[in-house]
Amino acid sequence: MTQDQPVNSERRLLSRRAVLTTMGALPVLTATTAVVGVSGAAAATAVIDPLTLRQTIRGFGGMTHTAWIGDLTAAQRDTAFGTGEGRLGFSVLRIPVPENQADWSRDLATARRATELGATVIASPWNPPASMVETFVRGSQTDAKRLRSNMYGAYAQHLNDFNTFLRNNGVNLYGISVQNEPDYAHDWTWWTPAEMVRFLRENAGSIGTRVIAPESFQYLKNMSDPILNDSAALANVDIIGAHLYGTSFANFPYPLFKQKGAGKELWMTEVYYPNSSDSADLWPQALDVGEHIHRAMVDAEFQAYIWWYIRRSYGPMREDGQISKRGAMMAHFARFVRPGYVRIGATANPASNVYVSAYKGGNSTVVIVAINKGTSAVSQQFTIANSTASSVSSWLTDASRNVAPQGTTSMSNGSLTVTLPARSMMTFVTSVGPGPSPTPTPTPTPSGGTGQFRVTYTMNSWNNGFTAGISITNTGTSTINGWTLVFTLPSGQSITSGWNATYTPSSGQVSARNVSHNGTLAPGATIDIGFQATHTGNTAEPTAFTLNGIPCVVT
């Protein structure tokens, strides 16, 4: 690392501020009201519809760039990618692709730990190797850089080699970008839309992982439209990636992607918001981050939301390794809306300054994220359609608390009324129980079990890894307080991380024990747990499960 790299990195951030919207005067914070026992202005009912399925969520995360600001410590990695209380819950890590192979291991330690904790890793290059680059005149810039026209194939091999290097060192890249911000490249390599299309058409097909493009700095559609309009280029790209620096909410929707992007993913791969000059703990300004993520999920329908530096004064983690207020906004999504969850229908704006989105995990878990940016408390009713939910757990961030557990509240016929404190953000997690399926599906033949518990196991595998979702339903008449689910993983499979349960050991006969918020399993209730694991080629599924020693019906 050269001495001036951190300075250049921050200079890049300063130059970006010119495209960000000007901040107005910040309102003065009033005393925060309590969640329970306070009346607030009434809002329209927020109706949550688990049968209205939107985009599949791939995750929330951030970037590490060791060359510019130093690596995360071991403790900071666990804070970033762990899912328990006091953690960010990030499920995506973005790393750079160094132009020199000698530097390829620079971010490996963090990438490995993120993978162990269940996160997806993607990578973006700033420059090709120097031997592949030429300079040219671009307006007033006399030393602009671009990839040589005869080096496209070599560059594809460079990206593929980086992918192979990581795979050989225990990290399976989910995707790799062609170029970070090809349309904002004063300090790195420029690409025109035509050059990007050419590379995708002729060379990207040889890359052995998902390909991300174009990563425009401001989600400028003139960079991505040509890809969507060229069938050969589109065939070789898997993720349309975008950055949101200064992008107005009005430009978040992308009709052409909806028209032509079938089978492709749409990711927001870098941003800081609303600026890089203020402390990430400035309140209530940090609520702007909550709204920004809400808009990215609801208006833009992105499947991933990735911050710039994970650890920075304006980022989700402070330089001392503690979660900031901006980080708390991200954790309200990241900890509870896990990869594979699907955004579902929800009344997005039931009252002025109130923003609601909802997500479904597995067959039963519903997560509701609600933001109140107003200066008054709001009495908000949530109704989950076609639901037998009877209780909900919640977490709160306000001026004095960060993602603080608020305990469990009863629901009546799938409805709940709560007071959203002034200038606050809340996440609610509930089990909706059985309901009608959004599409007719064949009824599987149950196997084994006594009928008191039903287990559904869903597996999604790739290369040398997989994720597994497990739904557990109490079909008996007695409430279970504290449970342990036991099953045997097939040979060659090993758990690397999990959620909503504690898993021991990582292979062979595994015991999955409840965590604090899901230890009670009432009659008719369903809970969802899951894990990420590696395999050596055997992708068979467990065939038998017992819960508290009682055999389960497997569907």
End-to-end span in angstroms? Answer: 54 Å
User: How many structural units, i.e. domains?
Assistant: 3
Classification by helices and strands? alpha/beta
Main sheet properties? 10 strands, mixed
Shape: globular
Assign the CATH superfamily of the largest domain: Glycosidases
Which range best describes the helical content: under 10%, 10-25%, 25-40%, 40-55%, 55-70% or over 70%? 10-25%
Q: Radius of gyration from the CA trace?
A: 24 Å
CATH topology of the largest domain: TIM Barrel
Summarize model confidence as the mean pLDDT. 88
What is the CATH-assigned architecture of the largest domain?
Answer: Alpha-Beta Barrel
Uncertain stretches of 5 or more adjacent residues = 1-5, 16-39, 435-450
- Quickly count the helices: 11
Regarding CATH, which class of the largest domain? Alpha Beta
Number of extended strands: 32
Strand content: 25-35%
What would you note in describing this structure?
The protein is built from eleven helices and 32 strands. The protein is an alpha/beta fold and 555 residues long. It folds into three domains: 113 residues, Golgi alpha-mannosidase II (Immunoglobulin-like, Sandwich), CATH 2.60.40; 281 residues, Glycosidases (TIM Barrel), CATH 3.20.20; 102 residues, Immunoglobulin-like (Sandwich). Strands 1, 2, 13, 14, 15, 16, 17, 18, 19 and 20 form a ten-stranded mixed sheet that branches. Strands 3-4-5-8-9-10-11-12 form an eight-stranded parallel β-barrel, surrounded by five helices. A hairpin with a 2-residue loop joins strand 21 and strand 22. Helix 6 packs parallel to helix 7. The longest helix has 17 residues. It is globular. The termini are far apart. The N terminus is likely disordered. Belongs to the glycosyl hydrolase 30 family. One of its GO terms (biological process) is sphingolipid metabolic process.
